[in-house]
C-alpha cells in the first residue's frame, strides 16, 4: 500500500486556483427599480417583486448571489440576480426597491457600490 502525501504548497495552490476561478468583483454605479416593473416578468422568467432582495446585472448568470456594499456608508446587502440591466450610463447593477431601501440610497436614486459573488 502506497501512501500519498499532499504538500502544503499543493493545497494552497488548489485553494488559490478555486477561489480565483469562481471569484468576481466589480465596482461602479448602482441604481434601483421597482415601480412600473413590479408584477411583470423579469428576464429570468420570474415575476419581478420590488420587495424581494433581487437585482439586475448585464451578464452574471441568473441565480447568482452577490454581496453589494455601498461605498458611501459601508452598509451591505445580499441579492440574487434575476434580471438584466442596467442599461443607463456607467451603472453596473440595478437593485430592487427593497435592496435600495436597506442600503439607504432609495431617496438619492443612485450610489456607488462594489459587488462580489458570495
UniProtKB/TrEMBL annotation:
Family, as annotated: Belongs to the RlpA family.
Superkingdom to which the source organism belongs: Bacteria
Classification via PANTHER family: ENDOLYTIC PEPTIDOGLYCAN TRANSGLYCOSYLASE RLPA (PTHR34183)
Domain RlpA-like protein double-psi beta-barrel: from-to ranges: 26-114
Function in brief: Lytic transglycosylase with a strong preference for naked glycan strands that lack stem peptides.
Enzyme Commission (EC) number: 4.2.2.-
Enzyme class: lyase
Keywords: Cell wall biogenesis/degradation, Lyase, Signal
Pfam families (alphabetical): DPBB_1
InterPro entries found in the cross-reference section: RlpA (IPR034718), RlpA-like_DPBB (IPR009009), RlpA-like_sf (IPR036908), RplA (IPR012997)
Hydrolase among keywords: no
Signal peptide stretch: 1-25
Lineage: Bacteria, Pseudomonadati, Pseudomonadota, Alphaproteobacteria, Hyphomicrobiales
Organism of derivation: Devosia algicola
Keyword set includes Metal-binding: no
Protein name: Endolytic peptidoglycan transglycosylase RlpA
Amino acid at each position: 500500500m502506497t501512501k500519498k502525501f499532499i504538500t502544503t504548497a499543493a493545497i494552497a495552490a488548489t485553494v488559490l486556483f478555486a477561489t480565483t476561478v469562481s471569484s468576481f468583483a466589480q465596482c461602479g454605479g448602482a441604481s434601483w427599480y421597482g415601480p412600473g416593473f413590479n408584477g411583470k416578468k423579469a428576464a429570468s422568467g420570474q415575476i419581478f417583486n420590488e420587495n424581494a432582495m433581487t437585482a439586475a446585472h448585464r451578464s452574471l448568470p441568473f441565480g447568482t448571489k452577490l454581496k453589494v456594499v455601498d461605498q458611501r456608508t459601508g452598509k451591505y446587502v445580499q441579492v440574487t440576480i434575476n434580471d438584466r440591466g442596467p442599461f443607463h450610463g456607467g451603472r453596473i447593477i440595478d437593485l430592487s426597491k427593497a435592496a435600495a431601501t436597506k442600503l439607504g440610497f432609495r431617496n438619492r436614486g443612485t450610489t456607488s457600490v462594489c459587488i462580489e459573488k458570495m
